[in-house]
Specification:
It is a single chain. This protein is an alpha+beta fold and 312 residues long. 36% of the residues lie in helices and 22% in strands. The protein has helices spanning 6-24, 43-59, 73-76, 91-96, 140-148, 154-159, 169-173, 185-193, 215-223, 235-242, 256-269, 305-309; strands spanning 33-34, 40-41, 63-66, 81-89, 102-109, 112-120, 125-130, 134-137, 162-163, 205-209, 227-231, 247-250, 272-275, 280-281, 294-297. Strand 13 (272-275) and strand 14 form a beta hairpin. The protein starts with 5 loop residues before the first helix and ends with a helix.
Length: 312
């Protein structure tokens, strides 16, 4: 049994950062092939996966299930713990060079994530959470500058973390909202002008996918008159956890490795991913690794009208 403490947690954060460096080294390489499910895979996916697997094996004896090395259900169904990894979440965003891709590393305990790290190396956004410990991020400029100086270490990570459960949007993002894309300029200006009070404002901001939106999602957004923040990969759930957005409806296909790491981050921030088929919190280590449709709710949305209507 591995002892999970803050040092172990920050080790996983460091692995994500290292993998981010590997991914970014391929950022100008547009070569890819299509997998059997028609999704793209690049050399960045493969090299990131190899690094994460090697580093995780060096610090724990837990088995690893990755998008690029899927563990059969009969191998994982009775595991108490295992790693669930997406070495490059948002490959389409990576190929589009819009920055909205992440490295996702989660530790699953039976059917739930208990530790998660999500890192967007191009945007210098880092989010992590551990069950009953909390969910945290960093000031984007501070992390960017510390990485550039090659001064990142566990002591810095511990001393500079910012809690997501509190209203720390400005501390995390500052004025660095230039990554917002495909959003109405009036809404963008609203976010900039109300960054300290987004969760208690008359406009409700919903995340939607850059490449994987759907008509059902568009209808949902229109029904509830939601403003839209377009993001890729796990950044959508993390944006809900941080308070940058309040809700994220997902009405097309995802897999467990797409959501596990950001799920525990959202849970520890006070929010929830609600499985629309079961009307329960998402579960993992299913025989079918595909997720049901879901809605991620920030803590300010729990028990409000959209949340309540999901149970009707």
């Amino acid at each position: 049994m591995i002892k999970i403490d803050t040092s172990f947690l920050y080790e996983i954060v460091m692995i994500a950062i290292e993998s981010g460096d590997i991914v970014m080294s391929f950022y100008d390489n547009m070569d890819f092939r299509l997998k059997d499910d028609k999704s793209p895979i690049t050399q960045a996916d493969i090299e990131s996966n190899n690094h994460i697997a090697s580093r995780l094996k060096a610090i724990s004896d837990y088995k690893i299930c990755s998008e690029e090395a899927i563990m059969d259900y009969n191998q994982r169904c009775n595991l108490k713990h295992y790693w669930l990894v997406d070495p490059l979440d948002g490959t389409k965003d990576f190929l589009a060079k819009n920055g909205n891709f992440t490295i996702n590393i989660a530790l699953i305990h039976y059917n739930s994530p208990i530790l998660g790290v999500v890192y967007a190396p191009c945007l210098h956004e880092m989010y992590f959470g551990y069950k009953n410990y909390g969910a945290f991020s960093y000031n984007i400029d501070s992390l960017k500058n510390t990485l550039a100086r090659k001064q990142i270490n566990k002591k810095w990570l511990d001393s500079n973390k910012i809690a997501l459960k509190e209203n720390n949007i400005a501390k995390i993002y500052g004025n660095n909202l230039e990554y917002l894309c495909l959003i109405d300029e009036n809404i963008r200006n609203h976010m900039l002008n109300n960054i300290n009070n987004l969760q208690n404002n008359y406009i409700t901001i919903a995340c939607d996918s850059i490449f994987h939106s759907s008509k059902t999602t568009q209808d949902f957004i229109k029904k509830y008159d939601l403003a839209v923040l377009k993001r890729g990969s796990s950044l959508k759930v993390c944006s809900v956890a941080s308070g940058l957005a309040s809700i994220y409806p997902r009405f097309n296909g995802t897999s467990e490795w797409d959501t596990a790491a950001s799920d525990i981050i959202l849970r520890e921030s006070g929010g929830i991913i609600l499985d629309l088929a079961t009307k329960q919190q998402m579960i993992y280590n299913k025989e079918n690794i595909k997720n049901n449709y879901f809605i991620a709710f920030g803590k300010n949305q729990i028990d409000k009208i959209i949340y309540k209507e999901c149970f009707d």
